[in-house]
Amino acid sequence: MDYLLPDCVAFSHIYGGSIVIFVQEPEIKDRKKTETRRIIKPDEYLDFKRGSPNKVYKGGARPRLKWVVGGNYAAVPKRGQKAFGRIQIERIWIESVQDITKAGAIAEGVGSVEAYKTLWNRINGKTKGARWEDNPTVWVIEFKYLGDVNDGI
Predict the structure, then answer these.
(1) Which of 10, 51, 100, 153 is least surrounded, with the fewest CB atoms within 10 Å of its CB?
(2) Alpha carbons 76 and 107: distance in angstroms, whole number
(3) What confidence tens digit (pLDDT) does each residue in 39-80 have?
(4) Burial class for 132, CB neighbours closer than 10 Å (0-12, 13-18, 19+)
């Protein structure tokens, strides 16, 4: 079962032809949103290279690369729609969703922790274990917007 996060419903490495689906397209294009939070699923894990986390894998015996720092991903507004642009992952770390700071909420494209909580529950509030009050552990993915698809990126 996929958990819906405030800003995306799928997130995979572009080398596999995958995409990132964001519901906050305007905030990304305006470069107001530079972070995304995803619930850590039981079969996902972080790989450390030279002491710094830079890769997330999914799966056990035959894991697949899910995200990588420096990875370049297509960003689309909805499943089945064309990409509006591309993002590049800058950093990945782990925290509980309620540990978000005001700076983190601003990087998520909203103005405050309370606004982020409202957004989180609007999307995740129906899924037990994913609600704000459940305080799930999340991947925090910092990214930069590379530009619109029409910009020749």
Answers:
(1) 51
(2) 19
(3) 999 999 988 766 677 888 898 788 888 889 999 988 888 878
(4) middle
